[in-house]
Amino acid sequence: MAYLPAGCMRLLLVVLAYGVHSALSSRLPVYDFRTSSLTPDPFAYNETHAIYVGRIVSVAYCTKQHVQNWTCPPCEYVSKLPDLIVINDAKENFQGILGYTGTHIVVAFRGSMDLRNWIDNLSFVKTHPWPSLPKVAIHLGFYWVYQSIHDQLLLALASLFALHPSAPLLVTGHSLGAAVAAIAVLDLHASHNITASEMLTFGEPRVGNAAFVMRLLQVVPHVHRVTHWRDIVPHIPLEWQGFVHEPQEIWYTEDSTAFKLCDPNNGEDPLCSKQVPTISSFADHVVYLNITMSHLIYGSDDEWLTGACGVGDFTCTLSQVRISSSWVFDGVCDCCDGSDEAPTTCVNRCATVAATSEARLRAVLQDAIKGLQAKESYVDHGAASSRVSSWKASLAEAVDHWEDAVEAAEDQLDALTHRFDSNPSLTPTDQDHRLYQQLHGHVEHAKSQLHVYTTLATASFGADDEFATLLGHCFDFEVNEKELKGGTSNTIARTYVMVYCPFVNVTQTEPGYHAWRLAQKQAQVGDKYTVQDDAKVPDIQRPILLGLWRTWLPQPKDDNVAILFPAPLYVQGVPHEAETRVTSDMRPPHQLYGQGEVCGGRDDPRRRSRRVTVEMHCASRNHIKFVEERAWCDYVLGFGTPAACTDAYIAHLENAFKSAAPHDEL
């Protein structure tokens, strides 16, 4: 299983850099639906109505049996639809529900059961499905999904219209289901003379070209496209590939307490969700209006388990290991006995998993023992103290040097300004202005260097100076931007090299930038022609400073800490992994590297300096284990080192090894 679980678990880990109000303070007004009346128009966006429709969409994520019985968690928040009909494709991967609300016939489609895989494999091929609308083009993959339920949809609608002939039709959906909803609205009108009165979608991707949007708005009188903060899905497919959104977008704040009515004539309003980075949030996609829209799964006893995010835990039948219920029925056999998937889907592999887990735990223990031995040898021979003494002596010299440099630069600057202050009749020349700027720059540079070396001179290297072994060394780590950020808008993913110099700085370089640019251009033009490398000098990206050494971070006050096997060995506050609980005093040391280069433009409300938190993990050798961008321009670097090994950690591993039990997620 991946290091970061999908679905609701991601919601627990994604942390935005700024609060809602500060992030939008320089934009158009954010309207609070609780206190603001936007318009008396009865056909304007109505949040109470949207919440009701959203709860129906949430029910669509349940299994067919539980929808029909109305026994899944979302069913508790909305009355069962009279004349309920559930439609599925042949493999029951895609699903919709239909029924009568008392006023409308409603059609609700759920999204993809594997969001990340769907986005990673999303192609951008278009099709022209309606001969009567030759200019209209839509996404081929979305159209295929619609075709998979087309016949069932027509039969279900015929049945409902026979019962409620005068009822207006409302079509809704989330994610992939929102795209299918948009296609269904136009196809029902163009091919079957059935006209929807309203379309309301949540987290809708771009579905078609401008001609599609124009025709869609002609067909359905009322369209509201709800988006949530930094939801990644509304950003795909891309505009330059010929896809555009329909208006009107309703953009919600992060906590869904307020929303903005976007441009009613432009589905690509630059002051709504389009203003967020293209590398956005998966977590914001699975919750809309504080309603979970993801595959909600029942436990092994056939009873629903509720919990955080409306999903809860699932207990594997044989091993009794708890996993997130968002992992159930996702096509991956997380429980070794296969109880998290449909019968006959998975082979019982508990014995193999137990043996593998024990072997991997043994390897972690042996590596930690080697690390502790290396640390003790280094400390016992006095090498650590010797290195620290040498390091601090050189730092003291550097501090003295930059103190003198600051004083000298300030004296020169004072002399220049004093000459003009004491003689007002003198007028500074252009050369004087340039000299002033140069001296001022010298002062600021000297002060900056003095601050850096003063901070280094006061750094602690551990109780026994064990971290002094890292002084004077740098370590690099190559990472793909998909792994770093959780996704990419580029056709070809970029590759970065992160360089960590302990107690100095963390930087990001991109040696392969020139080759990536050529590959990206080639991918964009396809096979039409071959992109030539005409550059006489290769494009070179300068290193980006992610952070300067600041301090050791304090230990957490709580005890919500887990040790993960095999790596990273420590993760805080992440349940459902192969873990054992420990007290916070065993949490690995964390370093902070701050005041990196600024992210965001001058007018960007999210503008901030980059920073890196370095997690020190016990290992037999010094090396970078992982690098992640867990929030915008906020990085976490896992570093393995013997200096982080302790007797308490070894004892904990030994106890875990003795009482080893199957860990299904390993």
Structural commentary:
The structure is a single chain. The chain is α+β, with helices and mostly antiparallel strands and 666 residues long. It has 4 domains: 8-231 and 262-292, Alpha/Beta hydrolase fold, catalytic domain (Rossmann fold, 3-Layer(aba) Sandwich), CATH 3.40.50.1820; 299-346, Low-density Lipoprotein Receptor (Irregular), CATH 4.10.400; 383-457; 472-658, Mannose-6-phosphate receptor binding domain (Cation-dependent Mannose-6-phosphate Receptor, Chain A, Distorted Sandwich). Helix content is 33%, strand content 19%. The chain has 15 helices and 27 strands. The strands form 7 sheets. It has an 8-stranded mixed β-sheet with strand order 1-2-3-6-7-8-9-10, with helices on both faces. Helix 6 (140-163) packs across helix 7, helix 10 (350-380) runs antiparallel to helix 15 and helix 11 packs antiparallel against helix 12 (430-457). The longest helix is centred in the middle third of the chain and has 39 residues, at 383-421. The protein is globular, with a radius of gyration of 30 Å. It starts with 7 loop residues before the first helix and ends in an 8-residue tail after the last helix. Residues 392-419 form a coiled coil. Residues 472-647 form the MRH domain. This is MRH domain-containing protein.
